[in-house]
Amino acid sequence: MRIVLLGAPGSGKGTQSQLLVKTYRVPQISTGDLLREAVASATALGRQAKTAMDQGHLVEDSIVLGMIRERLARADAANGFILDGFPRNIAQAAALENLLAELKQPLEAVVLLNLDLGILFKRLTGRRICEDCGRVFNILTSPPGTPPHCEKCGDKPRLLQRPDDREEVIGKRLEVYDAQTKPLIHHYRENGLLRVVDADADVATVFASLQRAVQGS
Ligand code: AMP
After folding, report:
1. Can you tell me the distance from the alpha carbon of 45 to that of 67, in angstroms, rounded to the nearest whole number?
2. Which of the listed residues 35, 54, 65, 67 should we mutate to test ligand 1's pocket, taking the one with most ligand atoms within 8 A of CB?
3. What is the model's pTM?
4. Exposure winner among 56, 59, 71, 75, fewest CB in 10 A?
5. Residue 217 has pLDDT above 60, yes or no
6. Could you tell me if the CB of 165 is within 6 A of ligand 1?
7. How far separated are the first and last CA of the chain, in Å rounded?
8. Mutate to test the pocket of ligand 1, among 50, 51, 58 (most ligand atoms within 8 A of CB)
9. pLDDT in tens, 4-23
10. Cα(88) to centroid of ligand 1, in Å?
C-alpha cells in the first residue's frame, strides 16, 4: 500500500492512518508528527519550523522534503506507507513524484477525506490529546467523561490542546489549506489517483469507506 491521505486539518487523517497502520502493517508518515518531534527536541530544524507552525503557516518545503526523503529511505517504508499531511502544495507533490520514481515506488492512490468547513472547525477547537498515551479526544463531539480524562490512563495525565488548535490559529490553517493544499485535489483527479471518501461519519464508518477506496485502487 502506497497512499496519500489528503484532507483539511481536522478531517481525521491521523485517526484513519492509525487504523490503516494496524490493518495493513505499513508505517504512517506524518510530516506534522515529524515536525512536532523536532520542535519538542528543540533541534535547529525544530526551532526553525516552530514559528510557522504556531502561526498556522506551512513550514518551508526544503525542511519538509528533507524529512520525507529520510523517512522514506528507512527499511519499514520499503513495503509501503501512508503519507498523512504530505504533500501540502503542488511543489511538494512534484517533489514526491520524483522521489518515488527514484525509489521505484509510485503512489497507488490519493484518498481525500471530505468534510464540511463548519464541522472541521468544531473538531479542531475541541481536539485534546492525552499527555501520556497520545490518544486523541474531542471535548465537543465526544466528551471523554466528567471531568474530561483519558479512559486508559485515568485522570492524572492532562488532556492537552495543540498550540495550533487554538481558535485564532485554526482560521489561518484552514485558509492555507484552501489556498495551497486544495489544488492537489484537481492535480490528483487529473492523473487518475484521486478517490473521495465522505469523512462526516463516525470513525468506523469512515474507515470502512476508506478501505473500499483503497482496495478499489
Ligand atoms: P498537521 O499535524 O498535519 O496538521 O501539521 C501541523 C503543522 O505542521 C501545519 O500547520 C504546518 O505548519 C506543519 N506541516 C505539516 N506538514 C507539512 C507539510 N507537508 N508542509 C509544510 N508544513 C507542514
Report:
1. 10
2. 35
3. 0.90
4. 75
5. no
6. no
7. 10
8. 58
9. 999 999 899 988 999 999 99
10. 8
